[in-house]
Amino acid sequence: MNKIALLLASLMLVLSISIEAQLQEPIKVEKRFGTVFTQNGKVLKPRQLLEITHNNPVAFKSMQLAKKNYDAGAVFSFVGGFMVGWPCGTALAGGDPEWALAGVGAGLIAISIPFSTAYVKHTKNAVSLYNDGLTSVKEDVAQIKFGMTNGGIGLKVTF
Predict the structure, then answer these.
(1) Which of 57, 87, 88, 156 has the highest Cβ tally under 10 A?
(2) Rg of the chain, C-alpha, whole Å
(3) What is the pTM assigned to this prediction?
(4) Which residues contact 41 (CB under 8 A, 6 or more apart)?
(5) Domain count, the chain
(6) Of 144, 149, 158, which Cα lies nearest the Cα of 12?
(7) Is residue 145 part of a domain?
(8) How many helices (H) and strands (E) does the chain have?
(9) 8-62: per-residue pLDDT in tens?
(10) d(Cα 153, Cα 159) in Å, to the nearest integer?
(11) Domain around 120
(12) What is the Cα–Cα distance from 150 to 1, expressed in whole angstroms?
């Protein structure tokens, strides 16, 4: 009988730990070199933010829009950076650079700036919606507590 009680108590401990582990920490917005989004001390990439906000439909929709802006901005800035870098590399190597190519690249980099700004705006909105949703979820989650009681080992479930 004692082995069954010990096994049941161990099972309840694992269950209560796993339920508490499912509660998510809020996402923090930090100003570093640009705007950085962190959770549990880890910097989150746009794809990770999309996965995290998946359980909150409103935050997820805002994050999808943010991710589209991020992707578009990344394409423009990458192509623009390449177009600026190629003539600069040619000039450093002693060749005849195409400065018009660098000018078009600079224009593409300038086009990427509004996309980056929109990404940060929509991501901040998604994070705010997600964090607001966390407080209401934490209040509604059932809590399981177990331990020694007057009659032996006890289990208490609160909603």
Answers:
(1) 87
(2) 26
(3) 0.69
(4) none
(5) 1
(6) 144
(7) no
(8) 4, 5
(9) 666 665 555 544 444 578 999 998 888 899 998 899 999 999 999 998 999 999 9
(10) 20
(11) 24-140
(12) 18
